[in-house]
Amino acid sequence: MLDLGRTFLQSVERSPNALALVDGELTLTYAQWHRIILNVAHGLRELGLARGDRLLVALQNRWEMATLHWACQFAGVAIVPLNWRAKADELDYCVADAGVKAIVYEPVSAEAVTDSAAAKTVPRIALDDAAGASISFDALLVERRREGAATAAATTQATAEDYSLILYTSGTTGKAKGVPRRHRHERAAALAHVAQNLYRHGERTLGVMPLYHTMGVRSLLSMALVDGLFVCVPRWSATLALDSICTYRLTCLYLVPTLYHDLLAAPEFALTDTSSVTKLGFAGAPMNDGLLRRLSAAFHPELFVNHYGSSEVYTFSIGQDATLKPGSAGRAGINTRLRVVKLDAKSPDEPAQTGEEGQIIADLLGDESFEGYWNRPDANAKSLRDGWYFTGDTGYFDNDGDLYVSGRVDDMIISGGENISPVDIESVLSLHPAVDEVAVAGVKDERWGQRVVAFIKRSEYVEAQTLDDFCRASDLVNFKRPREYVFVDDIPKSPVGKILRRKLSAGEYEPEHGATQPDRTTKGVTHD
Known about the structure:
By secondary structure, this protein is an alpha/beta fold. It has 3 domains: 1-18 and 28-180, Rossmann fold, CATH 3.40.50; 236-409, Rossmann fold, CATH 3.40.50; 412-520, GMP Synthetase, Chain A, domain 3 (2-Layer Sandwich), CATH 3.30.300. The protein is 30% helix and 24% strand. It has 16 helices and 26 strands. The strands form 6 sheets. Strands 12, 13, 14, 15, 16, 17, 18, 19, 20 and 21 form a 10-stranded mixed β-sheet that branches. Strand 22 and strand 23 (418-420) form a beta hairpin. Helix 2 crosses helix 3 (63-75). Residues 10-374 form the AMP-dependent synthetase/ligase domain. Residues 505-528 are annotated as: Disordered.
């Protein structure tokens, strides 16, 4: 299999003059970008990074971040992209855990770097004159014309078996886990992304999902596979995103549901020509029925893909018509085998019945699957069993063989001895016209163990009792009905838009400004 450097060379050779990268006023063709990438790759080598070394990068989605990703692929260096919001202690951990040889950062991440003891032990490459640097990023851009440069430019230093990157998972509890992925894993995942989203030659996408997240990386790589355009969005702004769609006639979007929600809510949406967008894809979190319907009406997409996956195994399942069976994650991807096993299963050979909620597992022989966590035998022992990856996600297969993802094992609400999935309840409540956003979590209860609480961001005034009546009139079974409604200004989410239910359960949220106590809970609701 080709490594990723040679993969990029394919696009340079096929379409040297095609527009490849945009960041603000900067526009680069594939030939122009290739030259810059090679300069940066050579600069990394001169700094002492060799094939197999690791480079930690804490940058937003700017052109330098995208360039470094590709430069590492050419240099045979594994990139370790980290959230630019990371704190000093997170840097300390990742620098030591990954054994990085240098750090690249910018002013927004400079405080963490300067406060990190581990960062002081390696070269620090700064953008925009960020404090604490030992070298400027501009020094990597210097044109190299010495002997051997032309030969080095003709090929890459990596093979398909080398590590491409190490992604650190969000780490909801304890330290984050490093997910090492080889060039062949990444290329297989990008090829699957192209095939499963029906991307054509010359597609154009919004580069807004963070490049420290698997969705952002997949958008970057898949555009190179089809000689497409990657438009950088350093920090999320619905206004900027809509302007980019219109200006560059973007053809496909791959976002988390939260960002789609923001796009539709932006005042500029109604005034923006989005007709060039023909393909929508989402991942990272389930999309509720209400948002599915609104997006379908707004874009009339020819393809609306629900992609379910993870950093460890990029594609679990894919559904190419998300509105056909709302809530369904479709069927296993082209590189994947899936099973649902009983919640307490110790091996992959304990299947759940059709319609029975269990834990979703994936075959580690899949072309996109990782081989185990970086320096974490404890995590491997928990998640890798008999050649299968136990995802920690809950779900079930319906009678048609389609997968439904109901949440996380840790998010499961156990109330009165019943297992209750938050996702089912959120899908129902999202259909009420006064509900802008909703998240459901379990809150400790002396009698029931946990009680089901719905946290609502309202688009217009509605009382808790009205929402309870709405649930009673739906097909939601009675024991899943929320026993409390809390109105909030915002639903707490991770940087990539995942609902942080643990914060809601722990009371870490701000009640809606001006909401009165009677509005926050249903009156006289029982577990009848």
